[in-house]
Amino acid sequence: MKFNPRMPLMVFFLFVIFQGHAQVAAVQLHGRAERIENETVLIGSASSVSFAFTGDSLSIELESRDSQPHHNYVSLELDGVYLKRLKIEKGAKRWYTIPVTGKSNHRLVIYKATEAANGTVVFTGADTKILGLPSTQSRKKIEFIGNSITCGMGNDTAEIPCGTGEWYDQHNAYWAYGPILSRKLDADFLLSSVSGIGMYRNWNDEHEKEAIMPEVYEKLYLSKDSEKKYDFNFKPDLISICLGTNDLSDGDGKKPRLPFNEEKYVANYIAFVKMIYTHNPQARLVLLTSPMISGEKNATFVKCLERVIAAFAGDKTHKPIALFEFQPMKPNGCGYHPDREDHKVMAAQLESLFKKLLDEK
């Protein structure tokens, strides 16, 4: 609606407020996200807001919101086709024009490309009437729990080369292995992932200053300091866990690093699986190794995961836990992370097993 100068200002502003509420109510949310009054808040990696509209033009209003000077990125998908990644500067809400061809019905999905540590991306509306989307309740659902690899860190260098900008300027969760695989399998997905995080210690922290995954998983914002609990309404059919790369890492080589503690890792992993079962008792679990780990470390990794699975061998109340071993790779992304093509390789390796597990009765 365009502002008519003959329209009383109060009527115009009331229309805008009403329209904002209507738009937020009409959109679909996926991933770690929430609705707060007339705003849709994207929190975790690849969390998304989607809606249908009619016409040959579209502008959307977005804001990057954080207590720190972080900007964010979103990835846009129009009618099932990836468009581009947008940088959302911290500060006031801004309007962003989306290229649209044709006047027919369209579907836009706005994915948060960056992760929860970067603050939130807030969607407050569009300059067109938002149409509701059909329910996707019949689709299978997958949750991917992991670290920076699962987040898609360092995988998109199309605009900003490695070694330049901020540490998150090459993030693009849309092109992480989980979302790629989910699109291939026509499944809904949720990423519960944090860069640098581990099961009992993190990449460069012996669990002294930083929270580990078992401490943040039940928090909506994946932060130990956050008071908001995650509601666990997603109810995935399949949950994959890819945690251990950071536990097994040597850190930055400067800060003191203790030898890998197999007992702590296995004990925390077993407790974490039990935590997952309290929220999703019917889900099938699959434990993943890491394509970044090989040799003796990988042998240790596999042995630990086998011990975790063995701890639930007599459990008749839950489905058997599966194990998947990635093929080692030399990553081509930033900071020894996979790039987009590497993530496609990872997704292809997982496809057969995930399809089999999802198709089980």
Account of the 3D structure:
It contains seven helices and 15 strands. The chain has 361 residues and is of the alpha/beta class. It has a five-stranded antiparallel β-sheet, with no helix packed on it. Strands 2-3-10-5-8 form a five-stranded antiparallel β-sheet. A five-stranded parallel β-sheet has the order 12-11-13-14-15, sandwiched between helices. Strand 14, helix 6 and strand 15 form a beta-alpha-beta unit. The longest helix has 20 residues. The radius of gyration is 21 Å and the shape is globular. The termini are far apart. 39% of the residues are buried.
**Uncertain runs:** 1-22
Strand percentage: 15-25%
Proportion of helical residues: 10-25%
**Biggest β-sheet, characterized?**
5 strands, antiparallel
Rg on CA atoms, Å? 21 Å
Shape summary: globular
User: For the residues shown, what is the average pLDDT?
Assistant: 92
Assign the structural class, choosing from mainly alpha, mainly beta, alpha/beta, alpha+beta, or little secondary structure: alpha/beta
The N- and C-terminal alpha carbons lie at a distance of 50 Å
Strand order in the largest sheet: 1-4-9-6-7
* Secondary-structure element pattern, one letter each: HEEEEEEEEEEEHHEHEHEHEH
Number of helices: 7
User: How many β-strand stretches?
Assistant: 15
